Amino acid sequence: MADGTSLRARHPDLYLKDANIDRHACRRVVPMEVLSLGMGRTGTVSMQAALRILGYNDCYHGFDIFLNVKDCDMWMEAFAAKYQGKGKFGRAEFDRLLGHCMAVTDAPCNSFGPELIDAYPEAKVILVEREIESWYKSFSIVAEGIYGPGVQRATILDPFWTGRSLGVLRQWLALEFGANSLEKAKEVARERYRAHYAEIRRVTPKERLLEYELGSGWEPLCKFLGKPVPDVPFPRLNEAETLKEKIGILRWQARKRVLTNTGAVLVVAFGLYHWLRRV
User: Fold this and answer.
1) So what's the pLDDT on residue 1?
2) Residue 187 and residue 182: Cα distance in Å, rounded?
3) Running DSSP on this structure, what letter comes out for residue 102?
4) For the purposes of burial, counting CB atoms within 10 Å of the CB of 202, is it exposed (0-12), middle (13-18) or buried (19 or more)?
5) Domains identified in the chain and CATH numbers
6) Alpha helices of 20-120 — where are they, by DSSP H?
7) Angstrom distance (rounded) from CA 1 to CA 67
8) What's the predicted TM-score (pTM) here?
9) What is the arrangement of strands in the sheet containing 124-128, beginning at the earlier edge strand?
C-alpha cells in the first residue's frame, strides 16, 4: 500500500500464535451490549473498529475464527442446532463462545441474528445495509475464495486450521444460503441478502434498533448507544483492500501449514519404509 507499512503492521492479529482456547470451558466475563447484525461486506470492519473505540471490548468479527480456530467447533454446533435440529444453542452456549465480547459483527454471528436478539434482550441492535449490487460484487469475491482452486486439498492436508475455518465458511454458505457450490451461492445471494434484513427488522423491537448509514459519523451511533462522541474521526477502513490483504495472509499461512504437514508425513513415510525394509 501507499503508506509503506508492512502487512504485519496492518494486520498484527493474523500473525499471532493461535490462542488454542476451547470455548466450551469458558463463561461470560463482560456483558453483551451491541449486536451489529448487517450482512458481511457492509462495513463490518469499520463498525468493529468504531465499537472498539467506544469501549466495547472485544467486538467479535468473522476473522476472529482464524485467531482461535477452536471457535469453529462451537460455530459448527450452532449451525447444526439452528438448521439441522441437532442439540441446542441458546444464551448459555453463546455465553461460552462469545463471553469475552461486548459486541459482535459480521459472519458467522449475523447468521444467528434472531437467536442473539432473543438471548440478549438487553443488547442494542445495529443494522448497516449496503446497495445490493455493490454488496453482491464483494460477496462474490468471498464466495470465490471459499470455493477457490486447491481449497479442498488444503482442508485435507491441514485439517486443524484450514479444515476447521473453511469448514465453518462452507457450512455458512451451505445452510444459510442453501448453496453447496459457487454457482448456487451467487444465484441465491441477493435473495438471501434481502431476506436477512427483513428478518432482523421483523424480530427486533424498534426501540432496540438503529439503522445506521455508513458515512453519517459518530453522532447517530453515539446517541443510540448513550456514548460521548470520541475526539477522533470515525474509522473508514477500505474493506475491499483489507479483505484482499487478509485473504492473502491467510492463504500464505495455509500453504505454509500444508507444506509443513506434508513434509512431516513424508518424513514418517520415509522412516517407515526403511524400517519395513529391515524387518
Assistant:
1) 44
2) 9
3) S
4) exposed
5) 7-278 (3.40.50.300)
6) 44-53, 71-84, 91-98, 113-119
7) 24
8) 0.86
9) 59-60, 103-104, 34-36, 124-128, 209-212
Q: Which stretch of DSSP H or E encloses residue 211?
A: strand 209-212
- 3-class SS of residue 210: strand
3-state secondary structure at position 29:
coil
- How does pLDDT run across 111-150, given as a tens digit for each residue? 999 999 999 999 999 999 999 999 999 899 888 888 877 7
Amino acid identity of residue 190, one-letter, is R
242: exposed, middle or buried (Cβ count in 10 Å: 0-12, 13-18, 19+): middle
Residue 193 makes CB contacts below 8 A (sequence gap 6+) with 39, 132, 135, 136, 139
Instruction: Write the DSSP symbol of residue 28.
Output: -
In the numeric block, the cell 469453529 is attached to 72
Residue 19 grid cell? 490462542
Question: CA 247, 253, 259, 265: dihedral to nearest 10 degrees?
Answer: -120
Backbone angles phi, psi at 36, to 5 degrees: -95, 105
Asked whether the beta carbons of 87 and 144 are under 8 A apart, the reply is: no
Q: Which three cell numbers stand for residue 157?
A: 492436508
Q: What are the cell numbers at 267?
A: 518424513
Quick one: cell of 193? 441478502
C-alpha neighbours within 13 Å on the C-beta side of residue 241: 8
Q: Which amino acid is at 189?
A: A
